[in-house]
Amino acid sequence: MKTSDLEINPLLPADKKEKGSISLSEDVRVTNEQLIKAYSDLEIFFENVEEVLFSIDMVNFKVIQMSAACKKIYGYSPGEFIADIKLWIKLIHPEDKNVIEGNDEKLAAGKTVINQYRIVHKNGSIRWIEGKLIPTLDKKGLLTRIDGIGKDITENKLAEKSLQRSEANLRTILDNTDAGYLLIDVDLKIISFNERARIFAERDLHQKPAEGDYIIDYFVPERKVAIKTMMEDALLGNNNSYELKYLQPDNSTIWYHIHLFGISNKDGDIFALSLSVNEITERKLAEDKLNRLNTALEKRAAELADSNDELERFAYVASHDLQEPVRMVSSFLGLLKNKYNHQLDKEARRYIDFAAGGAERMKSLISDLLEFSRITTVKKDHTLINLNELVNKTLHILRIQSEESQATITFTKLPELPGDESQLMQLFQNLIGNAIKYRGNSAPVITIGSVEKDHDWEFFINDNGIGIAPDHFDKIFVIFQRLHNRNEYSGTGMGLAICKKIVELHGGKIWVESSGETGSCFYFTIPKLNNI
Ligand code: ADP
């Protein structure tokens, strides 16, 4: 390149050009060689720079120069831009053409213009450009030249758009939740808030929230100190939750659950507070109702316990006091029969037998009832009971019935448990006794076992007897409830009621399972811990 070609200096506005030398300042003069070197450096820069650099001669209305980057950014060569001065305008996306409206006036007034718009690349793709136009006016104020830079900002734009989209999505979610959210800075001023927070503030605090407001101003004087303390505490890094009650002008109450936590930057310094508000009035009202119900229930339970105690005392007194007269009736009937037997006719003797049978039955009912009402507490004996020994003793007591019915009774290793020994013996005796008594056509086969659970032991007594219809599963545990008459199976209907009482006094439960046809399995639990 020759020095005489230095007509146009791409980096200097037209009025600063001088042929053969550049005036840098008053004192600095450069030689032609230095100038050639500088120009060639500039030319390398001009051809390699990523942005499109261009200059337009506005007097002759032609493109003076265009850097090579236009090929990459627009897909058109510098020659194509030089040949058609309007090419860059034609390439602007139709929807963005309006962006450059008004540029001419500004440039004519000597003002630099910056625009962002989309262009259609030669290959059809859409790219985002930021164009900067710098005008040069002559002494008369006429526009003589425009120098410009076009930068491809597609990636920034796409990132910005996706950020805007995700912000908009987040905003939509936040505005549609039931919770109010406020972001508050360290000076307790509102940074932003969602729609629900606005509703809460307007409806219940009677405040129209705005960014920059001091949040403490929203609260009634008697609340300010407490709220400020909570927020300052959260700013120290302590997450905290509160329930706040607001009395409304119509005397109704609104309850809020407030959660505060500090938001930290990556160095761990808290730079803002998140405040979330949920209205919990309904839950609070339900809780209140539940509490009232609980109190009423507790009162009722205490009343029931009292009346139960009273009934038990009554049953005890009644059965205890009835024993004597029944015994008397029964023994005098015996005397009557023995002493006057020869004077009585057959029918009179039959009547006496009926009366004696009735008295006997009354005796066993009374004695079972007495038994039942005597079981009121578990003997607080903290020694462990070996149930293997206890069941062995029980089987010994039941050996006559067992032998008569040719029963096979087996039990697997049973645990040791805290409990009342005589009551537990009675429990096993009643259940095994029933398993023998309610046998079917074949000889009884009875299995006794236990399963260890987390907090208690579960026992079972399984038989192959007559079974129990599921409709009667609950009924059989009620006092005097029987499923058969005395002629079929003897009994008073107190055995299982006594079992139930014993198990419950030990803190467990009892139930039965049966297909209703053959076999029943009675289960009961006893807690492992001695909490009786
Ligand atoms: P009782 O044996 O004196 O009638 P229980 O309270 O022991 O009184 O039993 C109540 C009823 O439950 C019995 O009348 C009987 O019908 C039924 N039952 C109890 N155990 C069994 C069993 N193992 N198999 C079938 N039925 C039973």
> What is the spatial order of strands in the main beta sheet?
2-1-5-4-3
Low-confidence stretches: 1-27
In total, the number of strands is 17
Overall shape: elongated
What structural class should be given to the helix and strand makeup? alpha+beta
Individual helix count = 14
Biggest sheet: strands, sense, closure? Answer: 5 strands, antiparallel
Tell me the Rg in angstroms: 51 Å
Bound small molecules, which ones?
Answer: adenosine-5'-diphosphate
Fraction of residues in β-strands = 15-25%
Distance between the termini: 110 Å
* Proportion of residues in helical segments: 40-55%
What's the helix and strand layout?
Elements: H1 32-48, E1 52-57, E2 62-66, H2 69-74, H3 78-83, H4 87-90, H5 103-108, E3 113-120, E4 126-137, E5 143-152, H6 154-175, E6 180-185, E7 190-193, H7 195-205, H8 221-235, E8 240-247, E9 253-264, E10 270-279, H9 281-340, H10 346-374, E11 384-386, H11 387-397, H12 399-404, E12 408-411, E13 416-418, H13 421-437, E14 445-452, E15 456-462, H14 495-505, E16 510-514, E17 520-527
Bound molecules: adenosine-5'-diphosphate.
The site of adenosine-5'-diphosphate has 20 residues, from helix 13 and helix 14.
Question: What does it look like?
Answer:
This protein is α+β, with helices and mostly antiparallel strands. Helices cover 42% and strands 22% of the residues. Adenosine-5'-diphosphate (ADP) binds at residues 430, 434-435, 438, 463, 465-466, 468, 476, 482-484, 491-497, 520. Residues 430, 434-435, 438, 463, 465-466, 468, 476, 482-484, 491-497, 520 line the site of adenosine-5'-diphosphate.
